[in-house]
Amino acid sequence: YPKAFIYDLDGVITDTAEFHFLAWQKLAEEINISVDRQFNEQLKGINRMDSLDRILERGFSGRIFSNTEKVALATRKNEYYLKLIESIDPSHILPGIETLLQKNKERHIKIALGSASNNASAILDKLELTSYFDYIVDASKVKKGKPDPETFTTAASALGIAPDDCVGIEDAAAGIESINKAGMFSVGIGNAQHLAAADYLVEDTAKLLFEDLIACYSKR
Ligand code: G6P
Ligand code: MG
User: Fold this and answer.
1) Which residues have CB under 8 Å from 219's CB, separation 6+?
2) Is residue 187 a contact partner of residue 213, using CB atoms and an 8 Å limit?
3) 17: which DSSP letter?
């Protein structure tokens, strides 16, 4: 068995990836930039400021924005996002996730969060999942966001577990890249068009079964 599972939050544990998309889309519309689902794939897993940079580059390629302007825009996006997550409760845990966490516990497999979000701990609390986690990596714990491996390597070293004994679970291309660079077994939630680099891929969390995942991990 692996010794640790490191979970991404948004789009893996709960569908806040959709709320991030809606909040960015609203902000972008207000400054006349179109953000569609296709473009949004490039934003998944990317931290707040880097996401904003990508959106501004799409709309105003080459134009320089002051840090004050950028902070104001990022803050506005986060206000929209906070409104959207206000009513999150345990019913918003994606199918299969709590079963997987329970199986980790039964097998004494450590559990960590590997999220780029500043809102990660608040969301885990709202979902009432915090007590499952041995360690939480959020935006405050890393210098280099995904696709840099730092998010996942930070979690593994805090748990004292070698990367080769870790499984990382992600819905974002940047996240899969981060797990692979960390030298861990990568599990993708989504489709092969975006997540072809995943070691193991399932369409959605309902299809993420502990036994199947372990069978594939053992053959790696
Ligand atoms: C996660 C999401 C991204 C989001 C980032 C920062 O990685 O996948 O879509 O931009 O967190 O979230 P925050 O809550 O700090 O703005
Ligand atoms: Mg995600």
Assistant:
1) none
2) yes
3) H
Per-10-residue mean pLDDT of the chain, 220 residues long, equals 98 98 98 96 96 96 94 98 98 98 98 98 98 98 97 98 98 98 98 97 98 97
- Residue 200, classed as helix, strand or coil, is strand
Q: Which residues of 124-151 are buried (b: 16+ CB within 10 A; e: fewer)?
A: bebbebeebbebbbbbebbeebbbbbbb
Q: Is 20 in the pocket of ligand 1 (CB under 6 A)?
A: yes
Distance 84 CA to ligand 1 centre (A): 14
Residue 8 is labelled as binding a ligand: yes
Cβ(145) to ligand 1 under 6 A? no
pTM: 0.97
Contacts (Cβ under 8 Å, ≥6 apart) of 212: none
| Residues designated as active site | 8, 10
* Beta carbon of 119 within 6 Å of any ligand 1 atom: yes
Ligand found nearest the CA of 115:
1
Separation of 65 CA from ligand 2 center, angstroms? Answer: 27
